[in-house]
Amino acid sequence: MAVLHNPVNRELLRKQLMEEAFHRVTLSFYRYVRIADPSAFRDQLYQEWHALGCFGRIYLAEEGINAQMSVPEHIMDAFLQNLEQHDALRGVPLKIAVEDDGKSFYKLTLKIRPKIVADGIDDPAFDSSKVGRHLNAAEFNAAMEEPGTLVVDMRNHYESKIGHFEGAILPDVDTFREELEQVPRLLAGQEDRKILLYCTGGIRCEKASAWLKYQGFNDVNQLHGGIIDYARQIREHGLPNKFKGRNFVFDERMGERISEDVLGKCDLCGEPCDHFTNCARKACHQLFIQCPACSERLQGCCGPTCQDLLAKTSSDKTPTDEAFLDEASSDEKTTPTKLNNPNPGKYTKGRIPKH
Ligand SMILES: [Zn+2]
Ligand SMILES: [Zn+2]
Question: pTM value?
């Protein structure tokens, strides 16, 4: 029988990844496309990609596919050929990570979901295909310079606090669902201004731009390929970089450095830091920013309480390789709550710049 799951435990898988003698490429892609039988497609892709040695986290729904992957460099041609063999994947644009140690994933997971991004929209009159104008990096930079332009970060507060575009509105939200509720309210009265949206890889803006147009905004634009592809384009074409700090990503790297600016602060001591971690105590698993000194002092825990509890129950240790959540399912159930500690890091609240 074909193997449709990972047979060995994650510690072993992680060890195997670290010992690999070849390089891997971290890439991502998504497509809104009709998939009649996501479950059958899932099994087929699992068998083919497992045979190629691909790792990653892939979501399939009737509305499309959303994939973050780690592909062995030496089988890249075979992987691209494989994509061409599937109607749903032929010609899909790939985004290649800019800061990559090749250790972004250590296993292959394909899951079926009701939607490829949880948006909470339940309005039969809404047509999600009427998206905004797609801008490349040069066009996005130029549009940012135009007087009256509003730049809106469509990601969650913990993503924007370690990196964002200059002058962007950073809504204080935990989920994409909340973001879609809050942004039209934040922008009310600005229906005729130029609006620029951006997110990690572009997938959330596909939904958000259509949603804002549906809410009566007339000049809605979005960064094509998101921050990931913006970073590639500015490097390749020598363009000025208007994104400061790190791009939060949903794999083991937890972020790609785009500029040298450190925008975040350690949630415990307030020192400049943009390194996210999960609390070392599994039952807590809190996502927070922690500097190396605080990490050492608290043994990777979010505070003394977790440190004490962890010392009593060593089996409660979080496997360091367990990703805490992902972009596709960033809903109430999986989103980290804000850290409850005496010295919380501050992040910028959503604000509309006066023009
Ligand atoms: Zn600290
Ligand atoms: Zn904790």
Answer: 0.78
